[in-house]
Structure formats: structure tokens, C-alpha cells
Write a structure and sequence with these properties.
This protein is α/β, with parallel strands linked by helices. It contains 16 helices and 14 strands. The strands form three sheets. The chain has a six-stranded parallel sheet with strand order 2-1-3-4-5-11, sandwiched between helices. The chain has a six-stranded mixed sheet with strand order 7-6-8-9-10-12, with helices on both faces. The longest helix has 125 residues. The site of beta-D-fructofuranose has 13 residues, from α3 and β9.
Length: 564
Amino acid sequence: MHHFNIKACLIEIIFSMRKMSPRNYISRIKFFFLSIAIILFIFSCKSEKRQKQYVIGFSQCTTGDVWRQYMGKEMEIELAFHPEIKMIVKNADLNPDKQIRQIKELIDEKVDLLIATPAEAKPITPAIEEAYAKHIPVILVDRNILSDKYTAFIGANNYKVGSDAGSYANFLLKGQGNVLEIGGMDIGSSADIGRHTGFKDILQGYPGIHYVARISEDWDNAPKQAEEDLTNQLKNYSNIQLIFTQNDRIGYGCYEVCKKLGIANKIFIIGVDGLPGKNGGIDLVDRSMLKATILYPTGGKEAIQTAIDILENKPFQKENQLYSTIIDSSNVRMLNLQSQKILSQQDDIVRQQYMLAKQIKVYNNQRTFNNILTIALCLVFILGATVFFSWIKNKKITQKLWLQNDEISRQSLQLSEVSAKAEEAHQSKLNFFTNISHEFRTPLTLIFAPLGELISNTRIQPDTKQALQLIQRNVMRLYRLVSQLMDFRKIEFKKMKLKVSENDLVSFTHEIVNSFRVLAKNKNIDLEFLTSERNLQVWFDTTMIDKVIFNVLSNASIIGLFTS
Ligand code: FRU
């Protein structure tokens, strides 16, 4: 099995941390505490899964009588010391067919071990053999099968029980008398067969003792019927001095019948089992209802102990014969005291086990709470550390940002100073040009008036007129350029206002183009105004658009199209 070693885990964590980037100390701390939290969690879970779990299937021929219940109690007490074992109990109600079915169910459920008390030896044998063949260890308790294909047997020797009862009967009757045997309905069980055979066999050695008959009654399930039957039978067998009953419950029933018939003090009754407690065999002997009982231990405790040895691969014995003995007036006092003590000790054990289970529950709850608390603390620490280191990191970043900010402000101040100077220079340049332009306009207007007069003079030569017209055009252009320079200033200071009206852009453009026709013709230039629209009503500032189109056509003249 792989062992979880805390030391190895810690070494592993430290190595992993060393592999991480040394600058990333926040991640290192987080990693460390998270790993510790996970280890704690795994440890807390692991300790609960220390032992291997086992399932024992218990096929009980019946759970309907005190002897079997006592056996169950013994098993329970023993099992309480082994929480790793779970036991499934199936009650066959003394029905062999039912028991076969139940054994097969347990085989299918793949129990780790099978404990069985066969209701009857013969029919149950194949089912037990099947389990054994499928490698399920089988422990037979109290009753046997007709095969040796089982792992272990635990129980007293029933043949000896029968023969002990026979010898004691001979002793009571002083070698002379008639005896009756009364059993239960489980005639085919090894217990019944063994006791019956042992009893009869030993009596053969006592010629004065006469075995009259064997009667079977169901005292556990139909006591009224059994009582009636026995009353009638005893009338038939009137000369009976002793009754051997196969268990104390039947013995007690017999005593009640004999008492009713007024023959209780004339007939000795010997029972089997010798259970402690009220109306148990020991109590019945003590109260002289039974002359004797043969102690027949249940083997519940031993069955569980052997099962654990088998499951844990420890050495064990196949045949485990339990001790049986006669209880009569000579030892009943002592046994009664002892059995009472045992019973009270058993009760103490049960109560202690109950208290222990409660304490374990409390302990488990506390441990879970503790684990949760530790993990929560680790997480809080991680969180705290994260917040602290983030705060430090943040502080550093903020400081850096402040420095960068200062630098940026300083640079932007410098920039605005530079741009203000540039703007100032630009403005003075523009002002200069505007003032110059303004100054240019007056002389241009003054040139323009006499020039018009000279051109309209009819006495001038055509060559001179043409030259004057060229001068006039260029004066005009100069005037417009100067005006445009001033417009530019206005636009810059946002003092230029649009005066829009809805006009036909096509005819408007046409007119301007027409004004260039003469010039174009003179320059032998093919000037055409091409438009896909006949007219186009749009909103525009006529002065501005006039300037734009005029400018475009004038520019064409500047690059040589219209210039002479
Ligand atoms: C209980 C019982 C006991 C008896 C044993 C024999 O079911 O009848 O009283 O001793 O079974 O198997």
C-alpha cells in the first residue's frame, strides 16, 4: 500500500516553490499555504479509510428464538470492536428452500465470508459447497452439513450433548425407567440428529432404561398446539419417568403441561442450552422446573473472531468444538451467579459501546470542524498576505505613476510653450501678410479704374488694347488673390459667415464657365462644361462657390491653360 508521508509532501512543496520565479513571492506564499491546506484535508480524509472494509453474510436458520437471539447479541458485541466489518443477516425461518435461496443471494452479492447455521444438513449442503467452490470462506456455526467442504466449524458436539443427557437420565433414574424424547420441527438438522443419536446410543448401554418414543412439536411457533398434543401424548405414555427435551424452551413447555396434569413432581425433565436470564435453562434448573440442562454455547463470539482471523489471513482451526456441560442442582447456584454477572457485564459493554459510538461521533464532528477551521485560517492568511503584498505593489506602482505624471506634465508644459511661440510666430506672419494684402488692395483699385478708362478709349491701337486687357486681367487676379488672403484670415478666426440660398448649381457654374470662353478661344483651348444634370437645386453660398470655381479655372490658367 502506498503510504502518504507528510515529510515527503513538505519537501516536495519546498522544491516546487524553489522552481517558481523568485520575484513572484506572492504566488510562492499562496502556493505554500494552499498546499498545507490541501495536505491537512487529505490527512483528515485518509485517517477514516485506514482499514479494509469487509462484508460478512450470515445465513441464520431462524432468528425467532431466544437462543438464536443470544447468539446474535454475542456477534453484535464482538462486531462492535470491528467497525471495518459489515454483516448482512438473512433469516430463513427454518425453511431449507428459503435458506438455499438466501445463501445463493449472498454468493451473488460477493460477500467476503459466509457464516451459516443450516436449518437442515442434507438440503443445505450443495449451497454451502457452491459458496466454498467460489472461494468464499464458509464458517458453519452450531449445525453442520453432510460434507467437509467448509472453512471452519464452531459448535458443541451434539452427539455428546445427547449422550450426556442419556447418562444423566440413567443417573437420575438409577438405571430403571421409561424415557421420552421431545424435539422441535427441525428433525433433519445436524443438532437434532446428533442429540437424538447420542441419547439413544448411550441408553443402549443401560438395559433398565427404556426409550419409549420421540415426539416433535413446534414450541416456538405453535405453543398452544404443542401443549395440546403433548397433553394427549402423555395420556398415552402414562408410565414415563423422564423426558429429554432437545432444548430448554421445549423443556419449559413440558413442565407447564406436566404441572397442569399434576405430574410435574413425578417426571424429570432434562433440557439443552442452559441460557442465562429469566426462563433461561439456568433459571429453570434453579427453580427446579428442569432437573438438569446441558450447556450448549451459541458460539456467536467465536464465529466472529474466527471470521476475522480468516479475513485477515491469520492462522485458524477448521474444527472448533465448544465446551458443553451438565447444569444441575449441584452447580446451578454458582452458574446462575456467574451468568447474571456475565449478563450485566454484557449490558455494560453494550452501554459502553453506545457511549463510545456517541463520543466517536462527537470527535469526528469536532475533527471535521477543526479541519474546516484550519483550512479557513489558511485561506484567510493567504487572502491577507495577498492583500498586503498587493497593497505594497500598488503603492510602488502609484509612486511610479506619479513620477511619470510629473514628467508628462512638465513635457506638456514645454510643448504648450513651444506651440504658443510657434503660434505667435505664425500669427505675426499672417498679420504681416494680411496687412500687406490690405495695403495692396488700395493701389490695385487705383490701377484698375484708369486701366478701364484706357481700354475703353477708342483711339488706342488694338495691340495696346490687348496688352492693357491682359494687365487688367492680371490686376484683377492679383486683387482676388489679395482678397482670398484676407478671407483666409477670416476663416481662421471663424469670422467668415456663410450666406446660403437655394440656387441652380448647373446654370450657376455654366455662367462662370461662359465668362472664360473668350479667353479659352483666344488661347485655342477647347473649353467644355459637361454635366449629367440639366439643373440641380442646392443650398450654397454663391460668393464662395463663385470663388471656388473661378479659382479652379484661374488655376488652370496659371499652369498654362489660359495664360498667354
Ligand atoms: C435454537 C435451537 C437451540 C438449540 C439449537 C440447536 O434455534 O433450537 O435451542 O440448542 O438450536 O441447533
